[in-house]
UniProtKB/TrEMBL annotation, chain A:
PANTHER family in the record: ACETYLGLUCOSAMINYLTRANSFERASE, EXOSTOSIN GLYCOSYLTRANSFERASE 2
Superkingdom, natural source: Eukaryota
Name under which the protein is recorded: Exostosin-2
Residues of the Glycosyl transferase domain: 489-734
Matching Pfam families: Exostosin_GT47, Glyco_transf_64
Any single biological process term in GO: heparan sulfate proteoglycan biosynthetic process
Source organism per UniProt: Macaca fascicularis (Crab-eating macaque)
Reaction(s) the record says it catalyses: 3-O-{[(1->4)-beta-D-GlcA-(1->4)-alpha-D-GlcNAc](n)-(1->4)-beta-D-GlcA-(1->3)-beta-D-Gal-(1->3)-beta-D-Gal-(1->4)-beta-D-Xyl}-L-seryl-[protein] + UDP-N-acetyl-alpha-D-glucosamine = 3-O-{alpha-D-GlcNAc-[(1->4)-beta-D-GlcA-(1->4)-alpha-D-GlcNAc](n)-(1->4)-beta-D-GlcA-(1->3)-beta-D-Gal-(1->3)-beta-D-Gal-(1->4)-beta-D-Xyl}-L-seryl-[protein] + UDP + H(+)
Cofactor list: Mn(2+)
Gene responsible for this protein: EXT2
Exostosin GT47 domain sequence ranges: 134-413
UniProtKB/TrEMBL annotation, chain B:
Topological type in the membrane: Single-pass type II membrane protein
Pathway note: Protein modification; protein glycosylation
Domain Exostosin GT47 span(s) in chain numbering: 94-291
The entry's keywords: Disulfide bond, Endoplasmic reticulum, Glycoprotein, Glycosyltransferase, Membrane, Signal-anchor, Transferase, Transmembrane, Transmembrane helix
Protein name: Exostosin-like 1
Record function comment: Glycosyltransferase required for the biosynthesis of heparan-sulfate (HS). Transfers N-acetyl-alpha-D-glucosamine to the nascent HS chain (GlcNAcT-II activity). Appears to lack GlcNAcT I and GlcAT-II activities.
Originating gene: EXTL1
GO biological process: heparan sulfate proteoglycan biosynthetic process
Annotated InterPro entries: Exostosin, Exostosin_GT47, GT64_dom, Nucleotide-diphossugar_trans
EC number: 2.4.1.224
């Protein structure tokens, strides 16, 4: 439409509309529609001047009506739609009070008490989950009902705010399914987060009448506050048969290892209070106890610690003399001094988390949030998510009988380890404690990991804070291993049409004793490779691979023909390397199979004037790259180059027809964290930058291009992975005063 | 007429536009008026309640902290670490283990296991001073069963070690004793208290053990993806190509030719499916979970990582009975240590927790092995440790050469001879500490607390090095902090004629050891040398001083599974005044230690850990035809 011809290219300045109807033209959408009518106008311009004023008014009214109608239609069409999609179009707007009521007869069945010997392979039906390509379990949530007994008395509060949040989180996640027949895990909407708010027997009856209950198989219950006075059981008392329990406050006696999931007790303060992250390091108090309602024996022990160690220990209690009772939960007192809770936790290095009536304490979450290292004194307590989280890294567990020694135990921890723990504590809170959603998703992930163990999240992914994940390198070839010499290497020669030179390279390389196969990558689509009979006759298999496109990355494709781990990439004009040099290169690669082992070395330098990286090929004392015109490397790097190269580097290389070797150097250094190994002395090399081009200017162009590559790749990798070293590898007796004929590799470094 | 026509067209236009309006507007109005119906296909999620904000919290304010407390820990029927183990006896230097002597005649295996524990750093001879009392329950075949030991005390602080499933009837209640056994059942196993052991064959090597058979990192192309254990002990393999359903009933009746391998040999496959004692259950399992499909989807990176990890775990913890027992003790020691236990990284990456002592440090950065995983670098300075044996001349020239290095942080002189300490030492800017040694050769590798850097340059008073050589060697060491970087080398070889290992210090095309009279290595190896080597080996080194080099090289090679690194050494001195080795008196050439030394140490290690290297690391421009002015380490090239 002509309207869209403004300078912005879009609808922002519909020029033609603006001129006649300047005032009205305020909203873009309006403009569009007006434009339509203008177009109408333009079609019959001759009529209008001849019309009488009356008719003109008539026409204008008519068009205004049409216009208004169109606007209204537009509003109806688009406006309400956007409101509803943001408010979830599909979901019925209802009140919790309107949910259907279910009456439970007094004699309806009750599930078995709960089987302590349950394990995933005995009580869980994995066949419901099946194999699925995404390796994700499907979770179904039962519809919310209100359960009443024979007398119409409710069994419990219908649903708590937290349980509603929890079910919402599951429903919004990838795990959710609304198809009960495809589900692998069932979550009842019966809220059992707090045992004290429900009637045990009736709740059990409500569970038993769920449509897929089947003895609780594959059902998951969430409970944070188990047990009740006086003896406070450490697991939910509601009979639940085989159902899995995600519980806060398990003890070793009630926790079914590998079946139940130990979860945190959610602290409502997580959402209410914003404690900004405080860097690790020494804090005002060494040890703090801020729990209220502690048993007098524990309080005595703690106060004894305070007496012994003075200022560095702070033992707080609830405030008795505060006027406003409502806020007392956020205040703590020591003698007459008043402290804000949980802010005071940020002032301490270690925070005591003692067993109260229950093992699980919501306070643990506050402590972690404050970046304070929890000192957990609660024998037999199963820490939250301990199946996957490494609590040794974030907490100190002290047996109750050692409580009096707690100070000396903590003092023996090196400062570096304490700082590590402070960071880790805060990270655990951020990742797994801070919201009901985080708790729910971590629980489902743990169950998911059990069902699809081969796709499980690794220890590092669960436990390493993002900073560590970024800074560290996990070498894909981490096992120290010297591959057997007998395996040999596969030489891959990339060629276009220099047949004569290619044949010479083939003949030379075939003299290397450890060569086991030779692969020629024929990169010329317009010309056929020479006939079979014309190729040099060599002692190892020779294969020619024809490529579909003349791309440099074809050299690094993981061809099925490569059967050895070692690959020698070699250009079709590298005829100056001796057989001794190549064999020695292979021997060096065997000792460093995770590195690029090559002949001509290059260096990257920081250009302080230009403020960027520069490529250097002069005679330097350092190397950080080797050219892949002749280099040994592990074939796994071919896979990485072809399928895992970050960003658009591969395309960049193919488009520029340059720098594939620099890209490979970046890739290997980035993934292994190690430097290249340059082998044997420098010799006059036929390489792109020293021979193909005569004359200085072209040479310089080439250097500029290579420098550009380094800068481009460094920005894609987000770092400079190349490592600079000052050594190269020579045979043990190289240039030693020793009879040449006794040396293993005499012909090294000859020009 | 014209006006009528005009009016007619007007009405037409008007009604048309109204019709349009009604159609479009009415439709939207209709949609508003009717309650929305869910779109088919889209999942209907948990409702957004109108009154969600009004819902009550699961715990009322004040309820959480106001709980009444009861000081009794919850109790159950079985043991856990806190309840049944008394750590108060384990203060000080870690886990001390007392082993009950066998009553009556014992088998050779039993005897050797006892000897192995007695030689370890855990052992103590006094049951009173021990924190753990170990009861070996070994001799499955002799049918001999242990009786109730003396200090039983309901089994408190006891570990009952069952390497093989014992046919013994339970002669006494295990009570509070920990049990370490193979394949414990879920019902009897107490997590965090008992220890699960691998199921060991009768013929499992006692120490050392064969290294893993993995020869290459990635799987060989063309080998089977999965091998399934069969009922009669053979293996059946399935390849990716035949995976449509090789496991259904039909396939089982007609296994293709060559698919079944019989006998003891392990199958040549990427994955092996082990199903305990019920192979028939495994094939059902396969059908249900479609293991094959899952394996095929696994990325090459993951397969690579898993392959390597199996090898590492085998080598570190499984390959010999001794390793299994030491691992068990290490696990228990970690429980006692609490916060100073091994971090997970140390257990799970090479060289493993048995070789990365938590008594040295719990920070991975302090070890030479984990710099990559930690994103850290070894420290940029070294300490020179000069051993002065007889005749006891202060090594003045050497001190000056070393002190000239920009990387040197301190010099330590280990005075280890009969002469009195000289009163004056050369003036250097470098801090110089003199340690009065105890005249034992193994003192050279004692973890002196005065050594404050990661790197140690170990020297003999008669060594002769230039500052350039020291500088270059140190820069190389920084790239390989877990290896030894040395100047002079020697080799081991298999001597067919004598049927044993031989040793040569001749210059050859390869080497497997560097002389510690001039070598860089990480200070952690002093801790390992002193605390993890069996006492017998350190005694051997003291008695035959030339063995100490070999022993240190064995130790480092066993830990790293890599050869040492050689750097260039000035030629003229190499001929005229070679580096001396440990023994007394100057010699023209480093004297070969008695060949027995290599064999004795190899026997104690249980295998030959030394590996040969064929390369030397030189400066990049070493002896290149370019102006000497451009070279950083030019004095290395002086003729």
């Amino acid at each position: 439409m002509s309207c869209a011809s403004g300078p912005g290219g879009g609808l922002r300045y519909p020029l033609r509309c603006r001129e006649p109807w300047d005032e009205e033209c305020e909203k873009e959408a309006v403009c569009v529609i007006m434009c339509a009518s203008v177009k109408y106008n333009i079609r019959g311009p001759a009529l209008i001047p001849r019309m009488k004023t009356k008719h003109r008014i008539y026409y204008i009214t008519l068009f205004s009506i049409v216009l208004l109608g169109l606007i209204a239609t537009g509003m109806f069409q688009f406006w309400p739609h956007s409101i509803e999609s943001s408010n979830d179009w599909n979901v019925e707007k209802r009140s919790v009070r309107d949910v259907p009521v279910v009456r439970l007869p007094a004699d309806s069945p009750i599930p078995e008490r709960g089987d302590l010997s349950c394990r995933m392979h005995t009580c869980f039906d994995v066949y419901r989950c099946g194999f699925n390509p995404k390796n994700k379990i499907k979770v179904y949530i039962y519809a919310l009902k209100k359960y009443v007994d024979d007398f119409g008395v409710p069994v419990s509060n219908t649903i708590s705010r937290e349980y509603n949040e929890l079910l919402t989180a599951i429903s919004d996640s990838d795990y959710y399914t609304d198809d009960i027949n495809r589900a692998c895990l069932f979550v009842p909407s019966i809220d059992v987060l707090n045992q004290n708010t429900l009637r045990i027997k009736e709740t059990a009856q409500a569970l038993a009448q769920l449509s897929r209950w089947d003895r609780g198989t594959n059902h998951l219950l969430f409970n944070m506050l188990p047990g009740g006075p006086p003896d406070y059981n450490t697991a939910l008392d509601v009979p639940r048969d085989r159902a899995l329990l995600a519980g806060g406050g398990f003890s070793t006696w009630t926790y079914r290892q590998g079946y139940d999931v130990s979860i945190p007790v959610y602290s409502p303060l997580s959402a209410e209070v914003d404690l900004p992250e405080k860097g690790p390091g020494p804090r005002r108090y060494f040890l703090i106890s801020s729990q209220v309602g502690l048993h007098p024996e524990y309080r005595e022990d703690l106060e004894a610690l305070q007496v012994k160690h003075g200022e560095s220990v702070l033992v707080l209690d609830k405030c008795t003399n505060l006027s406003e009772g409502g806020l007392s939960i956020r205040k703590r007192c020591h003698k007459h001094q008043v402290f804000d809770y949980p802010q005071v936790l940020q002032e301490a290095t270690f925070c005591v988390v003692l067993r109260g009536a229950r093992l699980g304490q919501a306070m643990l979450s506050d402590v972690l949030q404050a970046g304070c290292v929890p000192v957990v004194i609660a024998d037999s307590y199963i820490l939250p998510f301990s199946e996957v989280l490494d609590w040794k890294r974030a907490s100190v567990v002290v047996p109750e009988e050692k409580m009096s020694d707690v100070y000396s135990i903590l003092q023996s921890i090196p400062q570096r380890q304490i700082e590590e723990m402070q960071r880790q504590a805060r990270w655990f809170w951020e990742a797994y404690f801070q919201s009901i959603k985080a708790i729910a998703l971590a629980t489902l992930q743990i169950i998911n990991d059990r069902i699809y163990p081969y796709a499980a999240i690794s220890y590092e992914e669960w436990n390493d804070p993002p900073a560590v994940k970024w800074g560290s390198v996990s070498n894909p070839l981490f096992l120290p291993l010297i591959p057997p010499q007998s395996q040999g290497f596969t030489a891959i020669v990339l060629t276009y049409d220099r047949v004569e030179s290619l044949f010479r390279v083939i003949t030379e390389v075939s003299k290397v004793p450890s060569l086991s196969k030779l692969l020629v990558v024929w990169n010329n689509q317009n010309k056929n490779p020479p006939e079979d009979s014309l190729w040099p006759k060599i002692r190892v298999p020779l294969k020619v691979v024809r490529t579909a496109e003349n791309k440099l990355s074809n050299r690094f494709f993981p061809y099925d023909e490569i059967e050895t781990e070692a690959v020698l990439a070699i250009d079709d004009d590298i005829i100056m390397l001796t057989s001794d040099e190549l064999q020695f290169g292979y021997e060096v690669w065997r000792e460093f199979p995770d590195r690029l082992v090559g002949y001509p070395g290059r260096l990257h330098l920081w250009d302080h004037e230009m403020n960027k990286w520069k490529y250097e090929s002069e005679w330097t004392n350092e190397v950080s790259m080797v050219l892949t015109g002749a280099a040994f490397y592990h074939k796994y790097f071919n896979y990485l180059y072809t399928y895992k190269m970050p960003g658009d580097i591969k395309n960049w290389v193919d488009a520029h027809m340059n720098c594939e070797d620099i890209a490979m150097n970046f890739l290997v250094a980035n993934v292994t964290g190690k430097a290249v190994i340059k082998v044997t002395p420098r010799k006059k090399f036929k390489c792109p930058e020293c021979t193909a081009i005569d004359g200085l200017s072209l040479d310089q162009t080439h250097m500029v291009e290579r420098s550009e590559c380094i800068n481009k790749f460094a920005s894609v990798f987000g770092t400079m992975p190349l490592k600079v070293v000052e050594h190269r590898a020579d045979p043990v007796l190289y240039k030693d005063d020793f009879p040449e004929k006794l040396k293993s590799f005499p012909n090294i470094g000859s020009l | 007429m014209q006006s009528w026509r005009r009016r007619k067209s007007l009405w037409l236009a008007l009604s048309a536009s109204w019709l349009l309006l009604v159609l479009l507007g009415g439709f939207s109005l209709l949609r508003l008026a009717l309650p929305p119906r869910p779109r088919p296909g889209a999942p209907q999620g948990w409702p957004r309640w109108l009154d969600a904000e009004l819902l009550q919290s699961f715990s009322q304010a004040g309820e959480l902290p106001e709980d009444a407390a009861s000081p009794q820990a919850p109790h159950g029927g079985s043991c856990n670490w806190g309840a049944c183990f008394d750590t108060s006896k384990c203060r000080g230097d870690g886990l001390k283990v007392f082993v009950y002597p066998a009553s009556g005649p014992i088998s050779e295996t039993h005897h050797r296991i006892l000897a192995s524990i007695e030689g370890s750093r855990f052992h103590t001879f006094s049951p009173a001073g021990a924190c753990l009392l170990l009861l070996l329950s070994l001799d499955a075949q002799t049918g001999e069963c242990s009786s109730m030991p003396l200090q039983w005390n309901r089994g408190r602080n006891h570990l009952v070690l069952r390497l093989h499933p014992a046919p013994c009837p339970k002669t006494f209640q295990l009570g509070q004793a920990m049990v370490a056994e193979a394949s414990p059942t879920v019902d009897s196993f107490r997590p965090g208290f008992d220890v699960a052991l691998p199921f060991l064959p009768e013929a499992h090597p006692l120490r050392g053990g064969a290294p893993g058979q993995l020869q290459q990192h990635s799987p060989q192309p063309g080998i089977a993806l999965l091998a399934l254990e069969e009922e009669r002990g053979g293996w059946r393999t399935a390849d990716t190509g035949s995976s449509a359903c090789p496991w259904d009933a039909r396939c089982e009746q007609d296994p293709g030719p060559g698919q079944t391998q019989h006998g003891e040999t392990l199958p040549n496959a990427t994955f092996c499916l082990i199903s305990g004692h019920r192979p028939e259950a495994a094939s059902r399992f396969l059908q249900a979970l479609q293991v094959l499909a899952a394996l095929q989807e696994m990325s090459p990176a993951r397969v690579l990582a898993l392959r390597q990890q199996t090898q590492f775990l085998w080598d570190a913890y499984f390959s010999s009975v001794e390793k299994v027992i030491h691992t068990t003790l290490e696990v228990i020691q970690d429980r006692i240590f609490g916060t100073s236990a091994h971090p997970s990284l140390l257990w799970n990456s090479p060289p493993g927790a048995l070789l990365a002592l938590s008594t040295f440090s719990t920070s991975p950065q302090d070890f030479p092995f984990y710099h990559l995983q930690q994103g850290s670098r070894p420290e940029g300075r070294f300490s020179a440790l000069i051993w002065v044996g007889p005749p006891g001349q202060p090594p003045l020239k050497l001190i000056q050469a070393v002190a000239g290095s920009q990387h040197c942080a301190q010099i330590l002189v280990l005075w280890s001879n009969e002469r009195p300490l000289p009163s004056s030492w050369p003036e250097t800017a470098m801090p110089l500490t003199v340690i009065d040694g105890r005249r034992k050769v193994s003192d050279r590798f004692f973890p002196y607390s005065t050594i404050r850097t990661d790197a140690i340059l170990s020297l003999d008073a008669r060594s002769s090095l230039s500052t350039s050589e020291v500088d270059f060697a140190f820069v190389v060491w920084q790239s390989f902090p877990e290896r030894m970087v040395g100047f002079l080398t020697s080799s081991h070889f298999w001597d067919e004629a004598h049927g044993g290992w031989g040793y040569t210090a001749e210059r050859t095309n390869e080497f497997s050891m560097v002389l510690t009279t001039a070598a860089f290595y990480h200070r952690y190896y002093h801790t390992l040398f002193t605390h993890s080597l069996p006492k017998a080996l350190r005694t051997l080194a003291d008695e035959a001083p030339t063995c100490v080099d070999v022993l240190m090289n064995f130790l480092v090679a066993a830990v790293t599974k890599l050869p040492p690194i050689k750097v260039p050494y000035g030629k003229q001195r190499q001929e005229a005044a070679p580096l001396a080795s440990g023994g007394p008196g100057p010699r023209p050439k480093p004297q070969a230690p008695a060949p027995d030394c290599v064999n004795q140490i190899a026997a104690a290690f249980g295998h030959m850990p030394l590996l040969s290297s064929r390369l030397r690391l030189d400066p990049v421009l070493f002896k290149d035809p370019v102006s000497v002015q451009r070279k950083k380490y030019r004095s290395l090239e002086k003729p």
